[in-house]
Amino acid sequence: MDFKKSNQIAILGSGNIGLSLAKGLAQSGLYPASSITLTRRNIEALDEYKFQGFQVSADNVSASAQADIIVLAVLPQQLNQVLDQIAGQIDVSKHLIISVISGVSCEDIRNRLKKDVQVVRVMPNTAIAIKQSMTCISVGNASQENIELVKNIFNTVGICVVINEELMTSATALCACGVAFFLRSIRAASQGGVEVGFHAGEALKMAAQTAKGAADLLLQLASHPEHEIDKVTSPKGCTIAGLNEMEHNGFSSAMIKGIKLSAQKAGELYDKD
Ligand SMILES: NC(=O)C1=CN([C@@H]2O[C@H](COP(=O)(O)OP(=O)(O)OC[C@H]3O[C@@H](n4cnc5c(N)ncnc54)[C@H](O)[C@@H]3O)[C@@H](O)[C@H]2O)C=CC1
Ligand SMILES: O=C(O)[C@@H]1CCC=N1
Fold it and tell me: Per the database record, which ranges form the Pyrroline-5-carboxylate reductase catalytic N-terminal domain (predicted)?
């Protein structure tokens, strides 16, 4: 399929996720660094990216005016100031807004910018920097052409699914915060590995590769976790002993409760006024 040619991207707010997205896009070859403008209030912090060929600026207004796609990537509490800055530059016939901001609806953004500007809400995670993001998209009022454009972008830097906007705070918890949750699990496993005899560095590498293999069993075989767990747990064996000890200490329950609290909090991050 041919996608609309959208040449210039401005990422307003180049912090953790904005820069991860920039790296992934440049790596993918879909958007060269020279077609991406990164904004931040203190642009000295972007020197390394300037050196790599990205355009850097402290001026959200001119960056937006020059862009076809404007990515909003500031914190929820920083958003209203940025929207008020750029509102006058928005050309509804040209601009597509992609917001990665948690807890802010497409309608919130349209109400503050221009009612008929096209806004898509996207929830990537930091693995986008290595083209491994699980990205959830809700399409807002975008045209079919722009929906395909956005899906193509996020499929190039990982895997994307389109979901209803009401589920975006849940997607934030499961997929964006989820990176931290799985990393903490791997870190905990490596700490266990040190207790049973490995040096910290090798324990971390062994835990990470084991986690990657476990995830790939599910993804590549379209298998269910309990089916794969049953293959590991030999009768009267050491796996079931360890697994049950973890469950007695609330392993699954802790993960479920954490995801529920994160989803609730994601819905409370933005103050419209
Ligand atoms: N960090 C993550 O894994 C993810 C974050 N998000 C969302 O992305 C947004 C950004 O999160 P992070 O990257 O973690 O935060 P961050 O604090 O690392 O990045 C925000 C950046 O915006 C810059 N900024 C603030 N005001 C600005 C302004 N007026 N003009 C230009 N730049 C400005 C800050 O200097 C900072 O570099 C949040 O809304 C968050 O909910 C979404 C998905 C994943
Ligand atoms: O912690 C946060 O609020 C952001 C949203 C998802 C990941 N980081």
Answer: 8-102
With a 6 Å cutoff on the Cβ, whether 224 touches ligand 1 is: no
Strand partners, 118: 96
Q: Which of 237, 217, 238 is nearest to 226 (CA)?
A: 217
The fold adopted by the segment(s) 172-266 is ProC C-terminal domain-like fold (1.10.3730)
Q: What is the largest CA-CA distance in the chain?
A: 69
ipTM over the 0.90 cut-off:
yes
Q: What is the DSSP string of 213-257?
A: HHHHHHHHHT--HHHHHHHH--TT-HHHHHHHHHHHTTHHHHHHH
Assess contact for 119 and 142: CB atoms under 8 A. Answer: yes
The ligand 2 atom nearest the CA atom of 123: 6
Domain over 9-163 is classified CATH 3.40.50.720:
yes
**Residue with the two structure tokens 């929830």:** 123
Q: Which of 131, 162, 99 is nearest to 30 (CA)?
A: 131
For residue 73, the SS3 value is coil
pTM: 0.96
128 CB within 6 A, ligand 2: no
Q: Is 73 annotated in some ligand binding site?
A: yes
pLDDT for the residue numbered 53: 97
Low-confidence residues in the chain, pLDDT < 70: 1-6
CB of 172 within 6 A of ligand 2: the answer is yes
pLDDT in tens, 180-224: 999 999 999 999 999 999 999 999 999 999 999 999 999 999 999
What separation in angstroms does the CA of 229 have from each of 80, 232, 237? Answer: 47, 5, 13
Domain ranges of the chain: 9-163, 172-266
